[in-house]
Specification:
Elements: H1 13-35, H2 39-51, E1 58-62, H3 68-76, E2 80-85, H4 88-100, E3 107-111, E4 124-130, H5 139-149, E5 150-161, H6 167-189, H7 192-204, H8 209-218, E6 221-228, E7 233-239
Parallel strand pairs: 1-2, 1-4, 2-3, 4-5
Antiparallel strand pairs: 5-7, 6-7
Helix pairs in contact: 1-4, 1-6, 2-3, 5-8, 6-7
Bound molecules: S-adenosylmethionine.
Length: 241
Amino acid sequence: MEVKPYENSDKSKRKQVEEMFDDIAPKYDFLNHTLTMGIDRIWRRKAIRIANENKPQSILDVACGTGDFSILEAKKTSAKVTAIDISQGMLDIAVKKAEKEELLNGIEFIKADSLCMPFSDNTFDAVTVGFGVRNFADIPKGLSEILRVLKPGGRLVVLELSEPPNPVVKAGYSFYFHKVLPWWGNVISKNKAAYKYLPKSVDNFPYGERFVTLMKEAGYKNTKLKWLTLGLCAIYTGEKM
Ligand SMILES: C[S@@+](CC[C@H](N)C(=O)[O-])C[C@H]1O[C@@H](n2cnc3c(N)ncnc32)[C@H](O)[C@@H]1O
């Protein structure tokens, strides 16, 4: 199969993404769970099981948003969790949720950009990114930066949406994503642009083998791709040797 190379042309994407998530942060959780009909919770659990296979003592959750992934990691693993995001609005909600669950001792939330992280080389046993990679202004740079902060033997686990391969499922998905989602997102968040951006970000994401190729090019070994729910989502793993 021919794998198309990934190209990124939008230099101002980081700022736009930060402002957009700041704006939709109060409604993000409600919209996220209603729009995926709760399936995202099952996907998250699967990804965390894979991240926890090597019993990491430290996990970095990149693009943590409102903290669903980080909180689950603090509950389901014995690792110390560090979580970063560029949106202060999303982080504020994450902190409140962790506080409510009495998990703030186990998670450190930091405002930081995944493309330039404030951590030394070889710091974390595992890194997770849930529905965040497609928002990176420069995906190859983000993957290299994550590799830098992973310890040798450490594992990256990426959970990301993708276009399903089956034409019937794809047609249903396309209608839902391009029509229902922007409408419902606008009704709830009053931010039409944000929920138009979401389907576009999935359309533009180099999912499947293209993403695996980007991981390999960044230097990851033992790369694996696991499709979930008819190809609507995928878990990508790779290790630092
Ligand atoms: C769709 S949300 C996913 C949040 C969360 N991981 C989850 O599973 O629900 C994407 C998040 O990525 C964050 N993000 C996008 N680009 C980023 C970057 N360069 N560095 C850190 N966070 C970033 C956004 O601010 C947003 O909170």
